[in-house]
Amino acid sequence: MTNSNGSQLNGSQGKAQPCLRVIPLGGLHEIGKNTCVFEYGDDLMLVDAGLAFPSDGMHGVNVVLPDTSYLRENQKRIRGMIVTHGHEDHIGGIPHHLKNFNIPIIYGPRLALSMLTGKMEEAGVMDRTILQTVSPREVVKVGNSFKVEFIRNTHSIADSFSLAITTPVGVVVFTGDFKFDHTPVDGEYFDIQRMAHYGEQGVLCLFSDSTNAELPGFTPPERAVFPNLDRHIANAEGRVIVTTFASSVHRVSMILELALKHGRKVGLLGRSMLNVIAKARELGYMRCPDDLFVPIKQIRDLPDRETLLLMTGSQGEPLAALSRISRGEHPQVQVKSSDTIIFSASPIPGNTISVVNTIDRLMMLGAKVVYGKGEGIHVSGHGSQEDEKLMLALTRPKFFVPVHGEHRMLVAHARTAQSMGVPADHTLIIDNGDVVELTPESIRKGDAVKAGIELLDASRNGIVDARVLKERQQLAEDGVITLLAVISTDGVMAAPPRVNIRGVVTTADARKLSLWAEREITWVLENRWSQLSRNTGGKAPDVDWVGVQREVELGLQRRLRRELQVEPLIICLVQPAPAGTPAYKGRADAEPDTRPAPRGGRREGGRDAGRDGGREISREVVRDPARTPAPVAAASAVAAASTPAATPAARSAPPVEDNEPEGRTRRRRSAAVAG
Ligand SMILES: [Zn+2]
Ligand SMILES: [Zn+2]
């Protein structure tokens, strides 16, 4: 089942030697959105498709997915998908992908597919694929090139698998997420024998989890937290509140076991906590009596010493139950000073600040909070260096590729492999989109494919593209300036521009910005009008209003960047006025020092030279209202002059309120665009 007949399967490529291509589209140089492609000849198989959570600056983004252009382009070759386990960073992307390309069948463990079913129902894509559950040591065939055996491993979620993938060039072991836990909570042992069997037969390449590659020793077994949780729950005077990952099925099992032991009824908070417990109990991964659970509304009637609340929020997620409780915003649960609150999880990098803030708020409300490494109430689900060595020892791979980790973790893992005799040139450290090309004798990096990220907004439907993200960053960091210009179809400014400023930290006021805007508009009308309007022989010339807006926005943006060192989002709205509308004459009275708006003829020099002669700028800096406030009378004169009713053209314009919400402004913008 190795390389001898591989050439037929790989015929169309026309290469000297057929090769297996392994392409991770996510999960490298990061923790999250694990997505890996296996390709041989005409067959393409996916292994896992996860999501990641947004980092700082990704405003309004809920979910980060890998760029799947490569999969969309090659969807005819997708023969099927393998799921290793039910964590979000391995299955969270699947419902979204099913909307975009076809995956004929998905094989995976029962618990993961049960969790996936819920997500697919929610996304309305249940009919797009076939879900096929597998048992330990089951072998499935995907296309003509892949035979995949599911090998039971141990991890923080129940029902997790490593994979032995038999391909025409040899066997590839793909560990999935793992640690070696010899006393698993659910009694499902790591199938070390099977792993050793493949090692004995010869493993071409090992792709192994690198999450804890920097940590020496073995990761402690999940059971190690039991006595510590037991002690804290035994010592609690009042209610016990515990938070952990809902998907940490073993941890949740132990907490339920301890509640039973200490005679406490359990109330559950958080949708994912309720979902996972229901699924895990239904499938037999969690065993406890039904009457252990009491609805949250009734649990208040029980004495505090007889209750335990288990909830989401271990990562400080703003909408999760515990975070809302810490802010006093939860309708059913308020913190009491007799509460013992246990954080049985460690923050994922990036969540640390929101977690410590939540802990602070809970402490300030008087609760006893148990958290942190020293308490022994959390262990990782990923193996450390000695676990990784054991995996290398069992599989004895010819080639090695560290995966599932940030760059330094991959480097540390490669070093561990080298310490065990894997030559450095048999190891590849790769990035998302890199192509690992394997033959029976060689490993090398091929030409990379397109990889990157797709960002989904709260609706999980809209893709947030790079431009939208940039606009949101501008809004968050520098605010927004909207600008209404009234321009006639024959290229005359018919009213002074009106400016609204929101969230911009600047010494300049709306009046100054309005003056600057006036100059930009004047400049565009004088220097760009001939390119932006076209006389089609009809009554009015054809005007590229979008182009006019863009020119004014760009000009004002440059000026603000240069003179105020701010980069707000600028939205210019143009209200077209009929040809022949009288021109607005400028504002010489309010700004007597300003050079009169030039009429006709091009200015000397380039565009920038025309826009800001040095003299003009320095005068304006001196006139900065923060330093020399403009007289009140002059200011109100400007305000009066700049009401839209000042000109006949502007009278037809819809009134622009100063506190206009963004949505209306945006709509108006598109209305002007349409005009
Ligand atoms: Zn995992
Ligand atoms: Zn993972």
> What is the overall silhouette?
globular
Across the major sheet, the strand order is: 7-6-5-3-2-1-19-20
Q: Give the names of the bound compounds.
A: zinc ion
- Portion in strands: 15-25%
What is the typical, i.e. mean, pLDDT?
Answer: 83
- Quote the distance from N terminus to C terminus: 67 Å
Low-confidence region ranges: 1-15, 589-675
Number of strands: 27
Largest sheet: 8 strands, mixed
* Helix vs. strand class: alpha/beta
| SS summary, helix count | 23
Description:
- The chain is α/β, with parallel strands linked by helices and 675 residues long.
- 33% of the residues lie in helices and 22% in strands.
- The chain contains 23 helices and 27 strands.
- Strands 7-6-5-3-2-1-19-20 form an eight-stranded mixed β-sheet.
- A hairpin with a 3-residue loop joins strand 8 and strand 9.
- It is globular, with a radius of gyration of 32 Å.
- The termini are far apart.
- The N terminus and C terminus are likely disordered.
- Bound molecules: zinc ion (ZN) (2 copies).
What's a concise summary of this model?
The chain is of the alpha/beta class. The chain is built from 23 helices and 27 strands.
Topology:
Layout: H1 6-9, E1 20-26, E2 35-40, E3 43-49, E4 61-66, H2 69-73, E5 78-82, H3 88-91, H4 94-100, E6 105-108, H5 110-123, E7 130-133, E8 139-142, E9 146-153, E10 160-167, E11 170-174, H6 192-201, E12 203-209, H7 226-235, E13 240-243, H8 249-261, E14 265-269, H9 271-282, H10 296-299, E15 307-311, H11 321-326, E16 340-343, H12 352-364, E17 368-370, H13 385-395, E18 397-403, H14 407-419, E19 435-438, E20 443-446, E21 453-457, E22 463-464, H15 466-478, E23 480-488, E24 493-502, H16 510-527, H17 529-532, E25 533-534, E26 542-543, H18 545-564, E27 569-577, H19 607-611, H20 614-622, H21 632-641, H22 648-651, H23 662-674
Parallel strand pairs: 3-5, 5-6, 6-7, 11-12, 12-18, 13-15, 13-16, 14-15, 16-17, 23-27
Antiparallel strand pairs: 1-2, 1-19, 2-3, 4-21, 8-9, 9-10, 10-11, 19-20, 21-22, 23-24, 25-26
Helix pairs in contact: 6-13, 7-8, 16-18
